[in-house]
Specification:
Chain A: This is CTLH domain-containing protein. The complex is a heterodimer of chains A (429) and B (242). With 429 residues, chain A is mainly alpha-helical. Chain A has 19 helices and nine strands. In chain A, strand 7 and strand 8 form a beta hairpin. Classes of the chains: A mainly alpha (429), B mainly alpha (242).
Amino acid sequence: MEMDSLPNGNNTAGTPISATATATANPAPPQSSNLPQLTESLKLEHQFLRVPFEHYKKTLRANHRAVEKEMSAVISGVTEAAAADLSPDDAVNHLNSLVCRLQGLKRKGFYSFDFLFAVLSLEEGSRAEHLQAQKCRVRLDHLESADAENMSEWNNTRMKRILVDYMLRMSYYDTAVKLAKSSNLQDLVDIDVFQEAKKVIDALQNKDVAPALAWCADNKSRLKKSKSKMEFQLRLQEFIELVRAENNLRAITYARKYLAPWGATHMKELQRVIATLAFKRDTECSTYKVLFEAKQWDYLVDQFKQEFCKLYGMTLEPLLNIYLQAGLSALKTPYCYEDDCTKEDPLSQEAFRTLAMPLPYSKQHHSKLVCYITKELMDTENPPQVLPNGYVYSTKALEEMAKKNNGRIICPRTGLVCSYTELVKAYIS
Amino acid sequence: MSLFLLEIRQLAEIEAMAASKKLITREEWEKKLSDVKIRKEDMNKLVMNFLVTEGYVEAAEKFRMESGTEPDIDLATITDRMAVKKAVQSGNVEDAIEKVNDLNPEILDTNPQLFFHLQQQRLIELIRNGKVEEALEFAQEELAPRGEENQSFLEELERTVALLAFEDVSNCPVGELLDISQRLKTASEVNAAILTSQSHEKDPKLPSLLKMLLCAQNQLDEKAAYPRVNDLSTATLEDPAV
């Protein structure tokens, strides 16, 4: 089951996500025979699998780096000991300290160390890795479990997942946690991933760039690959804060260390920000005044959210928005904005109308006539009939009414009474 | 086959064109040139104009005495103008501004762009000499207010202040501001402004005449083959390629 990327998601991984995730967890059971009918629906589940998978890869990379660092330290320690002219006691002490170091690694869950055979073997088994592999597995199982019998329950779960996703993106973390717990969805939502983002967002809202810079450092290679400007923008903001505090010389030293390296690629923005040294914080020159405004921090928060979503392969907009927009654009017709639009139509409500305003109209090749009484479609099987006052209802509805009222028809909208024989059949072209 | 015929036809047309070009021999050309009379006074005026405009004051003085050609401006002002130019070229912008104001205070009052460029050059010199605090103060007091009034000044100011962010100027995208060529550019602008204020052309006439000669030759090349001046420094006539 290869996942197609969402319109505003970005499936950059070459391998089908589910296949890779399955390989890391237990082998998957045979696919459900109902899946072909669900394919369209499952196409929207790209980030559902992608996020835990990316998180898993990230943890693996971090663990691998930590292991390599420790290993090279131990190996160089052994090499030094071999080269040095140590007494037997000193040599034993030195080796013991290295053994302790490796056992410390083992306790962290990275390695097993067999001193007797002097074998160092790496174990991919840290707790975090295991939990994340498990999460990938659970999500695959959840997708597999979608079939016609439990569709309503499955859709209900999906609805809650979408709501949790929305809450997390809007920074309503506590609400998201409560909903996930009460619905037993912890493994199907990305609370842990968003907790990582929360720390950075909270710090940025408190005008502190340190956690964001640390996040950039952790993800340096991937951000570089996607040509991200996040770190540069954080550095610019830090420079602005130094100018605001009138620490001009510190600002220049900072610029030489952290901004100059970006000169080759981002000189225009760099020039503009450095010029604040000449204009100072209380400038009325609009070009620079805006750089000192508090909303620059809001831009940084938005920028971080975007970079964060890109990094984990999430859609840039909350899933709730995407689903709502898809649904509303499918329902939106010019008739929805008329006064006599039926109350059953979501677009008869002001809130939905506002949401649908920027969306295109649904592409309707043929008119669909729905009976006001039965709410059923009028077609050749159930043709429309016209009353003397011009109102149209389905044959089925009018026949039932005539049966109940001895051949009399009462127009539900105007109260007009007429005989069934007075009706005229209408034709749909 | 048709392509071959087309090429043959094109070659024939080129040959016909070459044949239709008038061929003027060296003999004919030299005769035509000898018929043109140029007055010695006009030549002397051109030379004097060149010496005055380019600022060779001593040579101009000697030439006046020897040829009797009077310069169209007071030679003393040339010395002042060259002193301004030299001051800018050696990075003494403050001194240059003072000298310009002594010469004619209206020059900088009526030319805000020139004044901004001189102030910009002064900022560049402060940065070059590592006087960071002084440079900042100068940018804040003198340049920022002018930058606010004019978008092009603002861009120049941004580029100049950006020099502060680079310790290693060789890696600086605006490092050319610290080149000597930037001083020469500013010096040339001041020189032109002083000449204009003295109702004198900014450029000497002699180079303009040489440009006209080259332009006329290029146009004549389309119509005739004739002995051409290819090297202006020797002014030798070269026979046309037949």
